[in-house]
């Protein structure tokens, strides 16, 4: 492409030089404007020598190059002939057009000389007649002008004579500005003729002016007058040459005292942004608090303008007053946003403050109020964003704590489900409302907001990052997992209901899976970008990190719920095993009541997880022998028991211990504690496992006689059926129950188990008693 463009450029240059040489009267002009040097080998130069050029070509080039140059020059000659022909055609058309134009001009000019002579005669006639009129009216014009001057003089004289009356009227109507204007306008005449012709008028006018001066001075120091009225009085006094420098300190002090009335106080801020759509009349709008405030600030600005003209050396103090008012506005704004404030109200107050700043900045541009306001606005706006997130966090906390879940209805009813749904709604709706408020900030057209849009986006991203981190920390504190400097809503950690911990765990999963992805989409759609200044104290919004945080928090809280429930059962078991003397235990007659309490606690766990957690895939895990058979430990025990019925008591005891330990050697390895999943079955199963493990440890700490061992055997045998119906891992439950029996046999002084008929009889009696108790409760309810 470059090799093709070069010949075209060279051709254009030659064409331009050709036209220049054609139209230029001096060949040197064309040469000086050309970009080609006048060398001997330049064929376009005026100093080109053909013979020398041919000799040079023959010396430097071979035949092939000469032939190529010949073909090239022939093409160039042909192109030049074509260009020259086109140039001649174009100029020929122009020459014909010029000739036609000249002919038309000659035909149009013909006869114009006679018309011009006639026009000249008419102009001369008009001029002679005009001179005649001027000559005849000259004396009358002079007389009229003289009368006009006399009339103006009489008006001035009449004005001087009427001045005292005019001043009195102004005093009655308190039109002091007009009075000063009348008096200052008449002062030049009164100074010249006041001692002669207008002596009485001057004396009466001066008396009226003295009254006006007194009234203005009274008005100047009156607390009931507005700031603008005082400033106007000061200006009028200065126009009357009344010394006001001595009043400067008092006037500026009064102006400073007026700042208190111009503040936008937090308790009155909401009234300024209220809009009554039903009242559109001018009178009601004039009484609107925002209109009253605007008029007051406008009067303050005009007062500063007047004082600046009257007291030029007071600029610095006026600057301080304007800056003080601006600072007070933003300080009160910070106090105002401490309570819950919508974005619309916040923007309404902000617009009022910005309008005040603009009014004062027009009067005192040197005070740099715009820069001061921009810095203060950044601080205030950043606090508003932070407090908005703080209010949302408080709403979520209030939703979690407003229900009383320490009562029985928490388990029997669906209080936990209601709390979970309400808290999920609070998180989702709260984030939606926050996005709506923050969009209003970005859509604001005020100049200062347009400049801060990147900062606002950054603050919002950082705000969500800090909000979710703070919310996760609050969840841990509410659950009692971590401690706080003070009790949560007046509740200590030992009084926190376990159901609340479960709700917090599931809510953490909801935030991880639903809320954070939704917030990420909203930020990417409307609040992307951001200024690096907003991230100076930490990272921006990082959804992946927050998901990991809430995932870890949900696992901690779920495990904390299981530990809390297990701890309660553990306390029950500790009381059961430490209270009696197991060495002197009596023969068992029924299942102990702690079994009912244990099952009741597990029933509460089941009801709680049913309200909060989803139901998983229920899989029954049965334990198998090492050879792959499906014989359970219970069937093995039944077989052993039937064999031992024919033996003596001592042989039966030794045989049971031997066979129990032998069975443990051949049992398939059972995984007891697996990862807890967020399903009803997984949480219940893990809780049961931990409780049985606690039961085993308490058994190992005691020493049993024969009756004590038989009581443990009876309780464990009764627990097998309801526990297997509750959990999903039967193999692990069988294993742990057997471990309790083994631990009791190891700690027993005389191991003689209950015979199966007796064991079944006691269990059936317990079941019948429980059924009767449940029927009575149903009838009574």
From TrEMBL:
Could you tell me which InterPro entries the record lists for this protein?
Answer: EXOC2/Sec5_N_dom (IPR039481), Vps51 (IPR014812)
Which Pfam families does the UniProt record give? Answer: Sec5, VPS51_Exo84_N
Q: What is its main location?
A: Golgi
Query: ATP-binding among the record's keywords?
Result: no
Per the record, its GO cellular-component terms are: cytosol; EARP complex; GARP complex; membrane
| UniProt feature, compositional bias: Low complexity | 626-639
- Please tell me whether the keyword Transport is annotated for this protein: yes
Q: Any idea where the Exocyst complex component EXOC2/Sec5 N-terminal domain is?
A: 378-615
- Keywords in alphabetical order: Golgi apparatus, Lipid transport, Protein transport, Transport
Organism domain of life: Eukaryota
Instruction: Give the family, as the similarity comment puts it.
Output: Belongs to the VPS51 family.
> What protein am I looking at?
Vacuolar protein sorting-associated protein 51 homolog
